[in-house]
Structure formats: structure tokens, C-alpha cells
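Lab notebook, design round three. We kept the backbone fixed and only want residue identities now. Task for the bench partner: fill in a sequence for the structure below.
Input C-alpha cells:
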């Protein structure tokens, strides 16, 4: 079974990201092809990058970085759950990504984005560009929620429509396919 890390990006008080992340986490668990772990940046609370050495060297001095490195390194695939802040993805997610370098490489990523009228798609596009520089294959298949707060009920539970569930299943299907292929590349040590 492949290890899937779902990364929830928001950290501010009153955030709704964990609700959206919980929704996709349950769908991924039911999929049955992945061992799923939710990594909530609001709980992990990485400080602003504080390592003295460049991440490409993998010479980490701080325990929080070593822990984060191990979590990302053991992953076979990712789903990033991101809000859209000022036409981009949140700074804590960028910080978490930039803590590391080699650990991200040759892995596939799905993206679940949410926001207002744009459904977080501008954040998604920006994230895809940044992931490419770390050799992460960000899928075209994604899940996007416009005016996402209307999907949160009085019990603080996320309710999605059938189209969103189908989009999630399609994304997971492609994530599995890419994960299988990229594993072959990661295991090729001749380079």
C-alpha cells in the first residue's frame, strides 16, 4: 500500500482548512489504495525556515525539521489542501515546502483548493508551478470548491455534492497511477 500524506495548509485562528482536509482524508481512506496520514500545518506549527544549511544538503539541525523531513521522505504521494489567500496559496504551506528539497522529488500530488469565486484555482496554479521545481508531478485532476463555506453545515461538517465526490475519485485514481510510475523512477539509483 502506498503512503499518502494529506497536507492541510492553513494555520490562522478560525480556519476552515481542517474541515476540507478531513473530507478528502475520509475519501482517500475509503479508496483503499493508500495508507493515509493527515498532516495539519496548524498543528505541526513549523517556524519560519530556521535551518542554517540549504535544504538540498539534508544537514538538518533542528528536531522539527528532522521530523518533517522523515514524514515527507516516507511519502509516496501527496494531496495538498489549500485555501486561496490574495490570489496565492498560504505562506505556511510555502514555508513547509521550502524546508525540504530532495524529500519531495519524483512523487505525485493532487490538489484540493477552496476559496471564493475562483474556488482556489489561482492558488492551485501557483502551487503547481512551485511543486514542479521540486520534481513533484502535480496532477491536472483536482477538486475545487467555490464559495466553500456554503459546504460547511451547522455541525461544522463538510458536505460536498456528487460532482465533487466524482472529482475526488478521479483524482485519487490518477494519483495511484502516477504514484506507481514514479516509484519506478525513485528506485532507479543509477543517476
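Proposed sequence:
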Amino acid at each position: 500500500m502506498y503512503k499518502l500524506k494529506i497536507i492541510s495548509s492553513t494555520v490562522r485562528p478560525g480556519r476552515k482548512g481542517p474541515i476540507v482536509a478531513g473530507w478528502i482524508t475520509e475519501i482517500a481512506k475509503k479508496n483503499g489504495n493508500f495508507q493515509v496520514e493527515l498532516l495539519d500545518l496548524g498543528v505541526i506549527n513549523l517556524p519560519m525556515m530556521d535551518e542554517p544549511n540549504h535544504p538540498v544538503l539534508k544537514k538538518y539541525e533542528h528536531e522539527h525539521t528532522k521530523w518533517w523531513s522523515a514524514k515527507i521522505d516516507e511519502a509516496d504521494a501527496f494531496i495538498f489542501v489549500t485555501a486561496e489567500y490574495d490570489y496565492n496559496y498560504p505562506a505556511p504551506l510555502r514555508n513547509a515546502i521550502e524546508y525540504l528539497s530532495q524529500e519531495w522529488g519524483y512523487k505525485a500530488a493532487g490538489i484540493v483548493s477552496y476559496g471564493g469565486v475562483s474556488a482556489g484555482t489561482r492558488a492551485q496554479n501557483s502551487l503547481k508551478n512551485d511543486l514542479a521545481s521540486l520534481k513533484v508531478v502535480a496532477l491536472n485532476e483536482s477538486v475545487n470548491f467555490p464559495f466553500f463555506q456554503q459546504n460547511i453545515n451547522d455541525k461544522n461538517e463538510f458536505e460536498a455534492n456528487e460532482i465533487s465526490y466524482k472529482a475526488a475519485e478521479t483524482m485519487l485514481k490518477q494519483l495511484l497511477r502516477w504514484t506507481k510510475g514514479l516509484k519506478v523512477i525513485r528506485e532507479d539509483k543509477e543517476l
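Keep this in mind before ordering anything: Residues 69 and 108 are 17 Å apart (CA to CA).
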